[in-house]
Design goal:
single chain, alpha/beta, Rossmann fold, Serine Threonine Protein Phosphatase 5, Tetratricopeptide repeat, 5-stranded parallel beta sheet, 46% helix, globular, binds flavin-adenine dinucleotide
């Protein structure tokens, strides 16, 4: 009997090392795929920010456009819609006699609610196959249960480094036959999503395009072509230019790069070029990424609450003027302002910048950290729910920082921008 499977793509927008795709291709004669630009992701949030602003939306458009081509070459059509998955997917399942739906397993409440709505709209005979596919260390392979995830990163990291193994990569083969459906839907434009055009800012540290090919090219360039990976630990606190850090985050966030792929590439680099503190540190940072995913898996909706996972009752303000000054880069701190102008004009900010502006917002100005996190969610090209909320909790003193620090922004500027190169770039040059 011929069977048709449907892969519902969300934040797993790649063809390499993609568990749902591999499963679907092995278990069916035909595979088709759907991606929905969910209008709820482009609405305003409770603080008035558009949930996905133009920078990430453009990156996503580029990613989905390329995915459609890549899948087509594997004889898998990708249907792209602007609409709610719970309205679109059941239609495809009915029309094409789909017997199984494959998707990446998510656990944050909004994603779960939407998946449950889709599932409810399907006949109970449809096989619903969810797989965790965003981790470096698979949840079945870590040496602890989710309720025992340590509060302190170092404890988590050491246990994983000692006892967990990163799985081998999954490879998809071309489907033998073209699916009988050939008509492809069109990927929307920024305008279709209600967003304005991007004016390219030449100062950006993130000039890259979305899509799996660009992500793989970046990995190739950062490691093999330029060997910047060998110096990562020395440069990672930089602020200006494309190469002080890997910039993998945007592809990782929408799943167009797999963390296992980066890991295995670093291991290969270590055996063929050099194994040093920098190569180790790249994997160390990928473990941070996993840690925040596990923290959100453990604590559920507490990561979105004002008192955070520590339940600490601080006094928080929501002074509209102070918030607007922070957004517009008009605070009393030039270093904060330069970073805030960078994110406003490009959708990018370095890790050093993010730590400083978040600490200034939540700890110095004592503003409700969730508003700062929501602004980041709106602007960042690499927004990832777990990394964003996990880091904001951490910096705001309601998460996993055992030292509960406040950044001294002036000292940080002296240390990381001693020559004022970064501040001059954003505070003195005219736009575009
Ligand atoms: P590199 O330094 O090259 O690191 C390699 C990879 O390791 C990154 O791509 C990322 O996947 C991971 N990584 C590095 N640092 C962290 C970290 N602190 N937490 C989690 N993962 C890390 N990262 C996001 O991907 N999405 C977010 O929405 C996000 N929001 C943040 C908000 C705040 C307030 C702060 C302080 C940090 C946030 N980060 C977020 C983490 C970090 O700033 C970015 O991952 C990093 O700057 C991305 O640049 P890169 O890829 O060049 O990183």
């Amino acid at each position: 009997m011929t069977k048709t499977g449907l892969v519902w793509f969300r934040n797993d927008l790649r063809i390499h090392d993609q568990v749902s795709l591999v499963k679907a291709s092995k278990e069916n004669s035909f595979v088709m795929a759907v991606y929905c630009f969910d209008p709820r992701h482009f609405e305003k949030d409770r603080f008035g920010f558009v949930r996905t602003e133009k920078y990430r939306a453009q990156f996503l458009i580029e990613t989905v456009t390329e995915l459609q081509d890549q899948l087509n070459a594997l004889n898998i059509p990708l249907f792209v819609h602007v609409g709610k998955p719970e309205e679109i997917i059941p239609e495809y399942v009915k029309i094409h006699n789909i017997t199984s739906v494959y998707l990446q397993k998510e656990w944050t409440s909004e994603e779960v609610a939407i998946a449950n709505n889709v599932k409810k709209a399907l006949s109970s005979e449809i096989h619903w196959i969810e797989s965790y596919d965003q981790f470096l260390f698979h949840p079945e392979d870590i040496p602890m249960t989710i309720d025992k995830i340590p509060q302190v990163f170092t404890v988590f990291r050491k246990k994983c480094e000692k006892y967990a193994k990163v799985r081998a990569m999954e490879t998809i083969s071309k489907m033998p036959e073209k699916n009988r459906v050939t008509h492809l839907t069109k990927v929307p434009t920024l305008k279709d999503l209600g967003l304005s055009k991007i004016h390219k800012d030449t100062r950006t540290a993130f000039p890259f395009k979305g899509g799996e090919k660009a992500g793989l090219q970046r990995l190739e360039d950062y490691a093999w072509n330029t060997k910047k990976l060998s110096y990562y630990k020395k440069t990672r606190n930089g602020l200006v230019g494309t190469d002080y850090s890997s910039k993998f985050s945007a592809w990782l966030a929408n799943g167009s790069l797999s963390p296992r792929m980066i890991y295995h590439e670093v291991k290969k680099y270590e055996s063929e070029i050099v194994k040093n503190q920098s190569t180790y540190w790249m994997i160390f940072e990928l473990i941070w990424r996993d840690f925040f995913k596990y923290i959100s898996l453990k604590h559920g909706n507490d990561i979105f609450k004002l008192e955070g996972i520590l339940q600490t009752p601080y006094e928080w303000s929501s002074d509209v003027k102070l918030i607007q000054q922070w957004i517009d880069g008009e605070t009393a701190e030039p270093f904060v302002n330069a970073n805030m102008l960078e994110i406003k004009h490009t959708g990018w900010m370095s890790n050093r910048g993010r730590q400083n502006v978040a600490s200034y917002f939540a700890r110095t100005l004592k503003l409700d950290w969730r508003i700062g996190a929501a602004y980041f969610e709106s602007q960042l090209i690499d927004y990832d729910v777990h990394s964003n909320y996990g880091n904001w909790l951490y910096v705001s003193g309601v998460g996993n920082d055992p030292r509960n620090r406040t950044f001294n922004v002036k000292l940080q500027a002296e240390r990381y921008d001693a020559s004022n190169k970064f501040q001059n770039l954003w505070l003195q040059t005219s736009l575009f």
